[in-house]
Write a structure and sequence with these properties.
By secondary structure, this protein is of the alpha/beta class. It is about 40% helix and about 20% strand. It contains ten helices and 13 strands. Helix 1 crosses helix 7, helix 4 runs parallel beside helix 5 and helix 6 packs across helix 8. The two termini are about 35 Å apart. About 45% of the residues are buried.
Amino acid sequence: MKVLVTGAAGFIGSNVVQALVDQQFEVVAVDNLSIGKRSNIAKDTLFYEMDITSNELEEVFREERPDYVIHLAAQSSVLKSMSEPMEDCQSNLVGTLNILRLSKLNNVRKIVFASTAAVYGNPTIFPIAEDSKLSTLSFYALSKLSAEKYIQLYEKMFGLKSCILRFSNVFGPKQTSGVIPILTNCLLEGTNPVIFDGNQTRDFIYVKDVAAACIQSLMSDNTGIFNISSATEISIQQVYEELSELTGALTEPIYDLLREGEIERSVLSNEKAIASLEWRPSYSLIAGLKEMLQQNMHVTQT
């Protein structure tokens, strides 16, 4: 089976591509390399340097005839979405609509879409289930939720099967942005990390578990919206302390107020994904951090 992966050279995308290759899928990788690196992608993988909004993507679909699409390409910065909402919308909404249009035209069997826990905003009931109240606090969350609605309508109107995966905070090797790489770099460089509030919590999921969830979603007959998470809540302060112990480094954090659009507390229920997709996370936070640090050290040495 042939799978087209958008955002294939990015942090999550490259890990998904590697998992697909390991399981003998034929992979078509698409990325505009605005953030991702060509070197991230598994060797000998067919690669197209292209934006998902490009008209040229139509030729890729027509030529490659993918059976499935895993759509990971996105503008993923909350802060950037607040300062540049037009660019955020173009990538996350218009780009997704182009993928849907081409998937329908070329008889794609199923599309897997990377959404986000940010669509839940600041809820009051935890852990957060898929049917929880939605509240978008940033243009990033709004564009992702709007893309979800287009995907659901395409399935309803045209029969294009889909799984919408709402990721919690993903971490792992090759990650260049996000709280864990920022804290790690500060510790290793001996600088003082800025921790917003300190009591802010997140639900961290290792990238290999996310890749496994994407593949399980392709293979499952079930469709719908699924939280992909560890279902474990941990504060940013605790993450910093764990990283400090693992690296043997210690610096003094600087505490600041939460930024606009930031969520205070987040932990997602993963019971639906476990029951319907036959997927469950296999990495704890500590196991994931240890593997991430080992792989990052290996890359630095080589």
